[in-house]
Design goal:
The chain is built from 14 helices and 15 strands. It is α+β, with helices and mostly antiparallel strands. The chain folds into two domains: 253 residues, no CATH class; 89 residues, no CATH class. The strands form four sheets. A nine-stranded mixed beta sheet has the order 1-11-12-13-10-9-2-3-4, sandwiched between helices. A two-stranded antiparallel sheet has the order 5-6.
């Protein structure tokens, strides 16, 4: 990081060039660039499908900042969750503005209903007045928020306990204790570590607190809270709807849309397998009530290796012109490992087997918008990238196509993001307002 008004000199780059380290590295590096356009994998015409009448979009947001004037450096963060229900039938009937061709924003809002949740979480050195340390206070707030949050039925804490399963154990949340088998209590109660006596909550089953380190900004913890909230919101909604015949009919007529990959990373990766199991249960209930009905869960991916690869495939002979409109592609594991996400070792698991509950789909819509989706496949076992074509694929593509508003952008996610996003300036102002 340069000092103010400082310009980098040429001494360092000259020394690197003259030493020959670049040329030596080049000769030893495995060749991956051919200079030719990438071979085009087999894109197929989009199968026939029926678009869903409703879209439930879920998105989260978070911001983290220091509190001015606090010594030592003291920080806090905001985490939010938004959900929007869009009536696609009303959306189709909206008049479009003559200049842009877009739907009038005022009319657009009449097609949707929304709900937002939010919490403030302590960060580095943000201790409670009663002496509770930042990490413990973080755990207490997260658990309390999960016990209060719900989208019509059980609380998020109940949903989490269901996903974790009876008998789940974790490492003691006290970072000074080495006990590895601490039982997870039921919601609205607490357990106790038999070794050190530390209180234990159901939220500790996410293990997010393990990344809350002393004298380090726990921004990763806040990111994981956001990701966990999104998954809990999805499963919480599905469990509520699946408890009634009316709700099961609604599931069969709804597309559930998430932001980002259908996956759980880091300490919350335990949720991926649990979510796969739960959506299979819901799919079986939906089909039992109505033969042939399917649960549709998909996401829009805006960045990452699959988005970059799809852009590269669509580049030649000119940008965004190579892929045929109204065509799709399901990358399999061999292609992903060879061309998108390299295998880490000879023994590594198939791509996404442990962390994903959806599989990638690349789509060029009838309007020429390129979308990278993740699509859940309840009827298949992981790795999903080696499974046959998803049963819900036709409906997914028929629903996603009209909602693509530009490359890698979903209208549903753009709308829910407006409810979930924390404006940078306003969010920072809220955190700074904690200063006396």
């Amino acid at each position: 990081m340069p000092y103010q008004d400082e310009r980098a000199g040429l001494d360092a780059i000259r020394a690197i060039t003259e030493s020959g380290v670049v040329e030596s590295f080049r000769t030893e590096m495995a060749e991956r660039h051919t200079g030719q356009p990438l071979p085009l994998p087999r894109f197929e015409p989009c199968p026939a499908g029926k678009y869903r009448s409703y879209v439930v979009a879920i998105d989260g947001s978070n911001i983290y900042a220091p509190i001015p004037g606090a010594l030592p450096c003291t920080e806090a963060g905001l985490v939010s969750l938004g959900m929007v229900v869009i009536d696609v039938r009303k959306l189709e009937s909206l008049p479009h503005l003559p200049a842009s061709g877009a739907a009038d924003p005022g009319e657009l809002r009449r097609t949707e209903k929304s709900v937002s949740l939010g919490m403030m979480l302590p960060g580095q050195n943000a201790a409670k007045k009663d002496g509770t340390m930042p990490r413990t206070w973080f755990r207490e707030i997260l658990n309390n928020e999960l016990e209060q949050a719900q989208l019509g039925g059980e609380s998020f804490a109940d949903t989490l306990y269901h996903l974790l399963g009876d008998g789940r154990t974790v490492r003691c949340p006290n970072d000074e204790c080495n006990e590895q088998n601490v039982g997870i209590p039921t919601p609205r109660s607490s357990g106790e570590c038999k070794t050190c006596g530390e209180r234990v909550f159901v939220s500790d089953g996410l293990r997010i607190q393990e990344q809350f380190l002393e004298n380090d900004s726990p921004t990763e913890c806040h990111h994981r809270v956001r990701d966990a909230l999104e998954m809990l919101a999805l499963v919480n909604t599905l469990r509520y709807l699946a408890a009634s015949d009316r709700g099961l009919r609604a599931i069969a007529n709804t597309a559930f849309v998430m932001d980002g990959p259908l996956a759980a990373f880091g300490t919350i990766a335990v949720l991926a397998r649990a979510v796969r199991k739960e959506i299979r249960r819901v799919q079986e209930l939906v089909e039992r009530q109505q033969s042939g009905a399917t649960l549709l869960i998909m996401s829009g991916v805006k960045s990452g290796p699959f988005v970059d690869h799809a852009e590269e495939l669509d580049r030649a002979p000119e940008p965004n012109k190579r892929l045929s409109k109204n065509h799709f592609w399901l990358p399999d594991n061999d292609y992903i490992r060879a061309n998108i996400v390299a295998r880490g070792s000879q023994q590594s698991k198939p791509w996404g087997e442990l962390t994903y509950y959806g599989r990638p789909v690349v789509l060029k819509t009838a309007n020429g918008e390129r979308l990278v989706l993740n699509l859940a496949q309840p009827e298949a076992d992981p790795p999903l990238t080696n499974a046959p074509r998803p049963r819900v694929l036709g409906d997914a593509l028929a629903t996603a196509g009209p909602l693509g508003v530009s490359t890698n952008q979903f209208l549903a996610l753009r709308r829910v993001h407006s409810h979930a996003a924390i404006p940078l300036k306003r969010g920072t102002d809220l955190i700074q307002s904690l200063a006396p």
